[in-house]
Amino acid sequence: MRSRMPDYHFALLCLVCAALLAACGTARSPEAAAPPAAPTLPARAPLAGATTVSASHVAPVPSTDVPTPQLPVTVTDFTGGNVTVTSVERIVSLNGDITEIIFALGLGDAVVGVDSSATYPPERTRSLPNIGYQRRLSAEGILALNPTLVIGDEAAGPPEALAQLRAAGVPVVLAADPPTLAAPAAKIRFVATALGIPERGQELAAQVEAEIAAAQAAARQIADPPRALFLYLRGTDVQQVAGSETPADAMIVAAGGVNAAARVGIVGFKPLSPETVVAAQPEVMLVLARGLESVGGVAGLLRIPGLADTPAGQQRRIVAFDDLYLLGMGPRTGQALVELVAAFQTDASAEGRP
Ligand code: ZN
């Protein structure tokens, strides 16, 4: 993710992983045009009194067939530099979305280190050596894992740590990660190419693109697009809204909503102020599960000045997602969109809006 974004990737609040992993295996249709069948939504996760909380763990189909990498391969990464990858035997992944992509491509067994934003697949990422947070990496911890490849995206840093890794002779490959709905497939193709398995990447990218397109088709059926306000919360210390040019904006718009912050002219992340809240008049509040928890659940959220008086506050229309799932722009983006569309539809039709 881009550097102007706040630190999203909290450790996963694992609400219902085990049950949902058991319930995975949703059939995937390669047809992009068809709107999705009624999505199989996971059980809603009751979170500290939230009345409208969408859980975040639709398990993807983990890739079981291990592809055979064709190496060496030379890629041009987002910095413009050419990097030659000769071995993917020991991969250190710098970002949670990239980690999720590697596992979805079937090369998870080669991952020997992940950052603390890597929360998916939960049962695998939890047990791997942790290299710290993606924006505050240290070269020493990574080099100690003897990687043959270090791969991440533009959120990885600081640049000095990356330079140290390159100086030590380790190939460092970084994907672009713009906050758009094109990012998931582009990152998948890039990562797969760097790992020497481009065909597997084309396959997975096409599947993810089809899922996103199907969710967008469903989103276009929403008759009355709700104004949705994304709140990034870390207790009382950090409380921000997401305007345009953010992953939250891309997701809200793709799911058929109106970004209430962008609508009043906010670009990027800006501190939450009562004035913004009054101007934005959200009908739905979108939060990260961990963020909601950090303010004490829905009751705490509604004590933030101004929020209780909005339509969303009055009607308790609050939707919480896991951070990597909603904002990671990873392989589950289409599934996250389906859930967001459902939340917007439900919210738009519930309780007789004024
Ligand atoms: Zn990223």
CATH superfamily of the largest domain: Nitrogenase molybdenum iron protein domain
Give the C-level CATH assignment of the largest domain. Answer: Alpha Beta
Shape: globular
Give the SSE string.
HEEEHEHHEHEHHEEHEHEHEHHHEHH
Point out poorly predicted stretches: 1-52, 350-354
CATH architect. name of the largest domain:
3-Layer(aba) Sandwich
Distance between the termini: 38 Å
Tell me the number of structural domains: 2
- Sheet having the most strands: 6 strands, mixed
What fraction strand? 5-15%
Small molecules bound in the structure, each named once: zinc ion
Class from secondary-structure proportions: alpha/beta
Question: What does this entry look like structurally?
Answer:
With 354 residues, the chain is an alpha/beta fold. The chain folds into two domains: 2-57 and 207-345, 3-Layer(aba) Sandwich (Rossmann fold); 73-196, 3-Layer(aba) Sandwich (Rossmann fold). The chain is 35% helix and 14% strand. It is built from 15 helices and twelve strands. Strands 7, 8, 9, 10, 11 and 12 form a six-stranded mixed beta sheet that branches. Helix 2 links the parallel strand 3 and strand 4 (111-113). Helix 6 (183-194) runs antiparallel to helix 7 and helix 7 (198-219) packs parallel to helix 15. The radius of gyration is 20 Å and the shape is globular. The relative contact order is 0.17. Mean pLDDT is 85; it is low at 1-52 and 350-354. Bound molecules: zinc ion. Zinc ion is lined by residues 1, 95, 97, 153, 155, 177.
Name its key features.
single chain, 354 residues, alpha/beta, Rossmann fold, 6-stranded mixed beta sheet, 12 strands, globular, disordered C terminus, binds zinc ion
